[in-house]
Each structure stands twice: as structure tokens, then as C-alpha cells.
Design brief:
There is one protein chain. With about 280 residues, this protein is of the alpha/beta class. It has helices at about 5-10, 25-30, 45-50, 65-75, 100-115, 160-170, 190-200, 210-220, 225-240, 245-250, 260-265, and strands at about 15-20, 35-40, 55-60, 85-90, 120-125, 135-140, 140-145, 180, 205-210. Helix 5 links the parallel strand 4 (about 85-90) and strand 5. Helix 1 crosses helix 6. The protein is globular, with a radius of gyration of 19 Å.
Length: about 280
């Protein structure tokens, strides 16, 4: 969801990009011929070090289960392999006060590993990405989960995020920064989904659930994805959306894609979980 647009924007900028992927065919289908594909696991130190060979920078954009271990692998041999910078995708609500939430704790630990390594780095803290709305579509049915106090979220398009990642590699002022990435629209998740279904999936049957009902359904159906989303919605109900995007906008250019523009643009084939 976020790795592909970053790779595409970096290659458009003239960078040579290599991607460590688990499946060669899937990686090639998603990334095209302009990106070098290396097959391996981010959890395997040897695979990570081999993928880093000859590179001057590493961008870490992984799921919760892999990001901390992968970052440890990266920084362990960064100096020996001539790595001049590392960028990492964290989250807009990642802070000490929120470490009670497991996702945030992993991201904070990963940031600490990077910061203590001494390698020049940039940390991106994006809010909810527009592409995550596709996660709420299941076959012929859409789901809207109504939290207790849904906060307004500045949804950002993955393409805008990818452009900002690429721009950071062309601007030394980004080094050492922790940059919050927010889009132009401020809207609650239920409202964003209502608009998304109306424009992109007008024929879907939309199921509206209160948070407790969604939790019950997740338990009965044993849907891990739904369980995760209910935890995430409950978390954002409590903490809201954090971070000031003004520095990122000044250095890297303000995200411009609105939700309405994104609704009518071609979508990638692979949605992903929110950061």
C-alpha cells in the first residue's frame, strides 16, 4: 500500500530501487520492471544484509510483526555496508503516552533502534491512508463501524505519501526529522466510508455496526482483520489524531489529493492496514 508508491516515485526521481519481497512474481506484478526484485524475508538477517549490498539507503516499510526485527538487521550492518541514511514508516499517534497500545509500542521500539544506531535517518508518521478504506469491503458487503467518539482524521493518499518519501531523499533538511503526514480532508472514519461506498461501491450492501457489535462479530467469525480494526478504532476513539504536519509540508510539499479526487482515481490492487 505504501511501499509501491514510494518505489515508483523514487524511480521516477532517477534513483535505482531494489525491493526485498517474499514472492518474486507478486513483487514483479506490483512493482513493475523498473524495480530490482530480491526474494527473501525481512525477518532473516542474511536476506536483509544481502538485499542491502551495494545500496546507499534503506527504506523500512513493514507490518508490525516484522518491522522491529528488520530494523535491527538493517542497523547492525549499516555502517559496514556504507548505508548513508535509513527512512522508516512509523505512525501519527506513536508517542510515549500511547505505548500501552501494542502497535505503538512496536513502532516506538523500532524508532529507538534507529535513533540509537547513529545512522542518518528520517521517520515518517502518516495518519490513516485512503487506500485502507478498501479493507472494509468484503465481497458484496461493506462495513461501517461506529465508534463511541470517532475523531476527525486527515486521510492521506498513498501516492502523496510516496512523493513525500521520494522528496526526502532529495533534501538533506529532512535528515533527523520526525515528519507527520496529514492529508487535506478532516473527516471521521464513518463519514469517509459513507462517501466511499456511495461513489466507489454504490451497489454494496452496507452493514453499520456499533463497536461492541463488531467485536462480537469478530469473535464469532474469528476474523483476525476485523478484530484488529475494532482495536484500532477503539484506540483512535481514545487518543484522536496527533501530530503537526506543517514541517513535513514545508520540506516535502503538502499532500493535495482530496477524498473526492481519490474516489474517482484508479486504485491499486492491494489495500493495507492503517498505520
Amino acid at each position: 500500500m505504501l511501499g509501491r508508491p514510494a518505489a515508483q516515485c523514487l524511480t521516477a526521481q532517477g534513483q535505482r530501487v531494489r525491493a526485498l519481497v517474499r514472492e518474486a512474481a507478486k513483487g514483479r506484478r506490483l512493482l513493475g520492471d523498473s524495480v530490482e526484485i530480491v526474494v527473501g524475508s525481512a525477518l532473516d538477517e542474511r536476506d536483509v544484509h544481502q538485499a542491502m549490498a551495494g545500496c546507499w539507503a534503506v527504506h523500512v516499510n513493514l507490518v508490525q510483526e516484522a518491522e522491529l526485527t528488520a530494523m535491527q538487521h538493517v542497523v547492525r550492518s549499516a555502517a559496514a555496508r556504507g548505508i548513508q541514511r535509513v527512512s522508516y514508516v512509523s505512525a501519527t499517534t506513536a508517542c510515549e503516552a500511547n505505548r500501552w497500545f501494542e502497535v505503538v509500542d512496536v513502532k516506538m521500539r523500532t524508532e529507538e533502534v534507529l535513533r540509537q544506531s547513529g545512522v542518518p535517518h528520517v521517520v515518517f508518521c502518516p495518519t490513516w491512508v485512503m487506500e485502507t478504506l478498501e479493507n472494509f469491503v468484503h465481497g458484496s458487503r461493506g462495513t461501517i463501524i461506529l465508534g463511541r467518539n470517532p475523531p476527525e482524521l486527515h486521510f492521506v493518499a498513498a501516492a502523496d505519501f510516496g512523493r513525500m518519501v521520494a522528496q526526502s531523499y532529495a533534501d538533506e533538511r529532512a535528515l533527523g526529522k520526525r515528519l507527520f503526514i496529514h492529508g487535506p480532508d478532516a473527516v471521521t472514519l464513518p463519514d469517509a466510508l459513507e462517501r466511499f461506498y456511495a461513489v466507489c461501491h454504490p451497489h454494496l450492501r452496507v452493514m453499520r455496526l456499533k463497536l461492541w457489535q463488531a467485536r462480537l462479530l469478530a469473535g464469532l467469525t474469528r476474523r483476525a482483520g476485523l478484530t484488529y480494526v475494532t482495536k484500532l478504532i477503539d484506540y483512535f476513539d481514545r487518543v484522536g489524531e496527533l501530530g503537526d504536519p506543517s514541517e513535513a509540508n514545508r520540506l516535502l510539499g503538502t499532500p493535495s489529493t482530496t477524498l473526492d479526487e481519490w474516489f474517482t482515481s484508479p486504485h491499486g490492487e492491494r489495500p493495507g492496514l492503517p498505520h
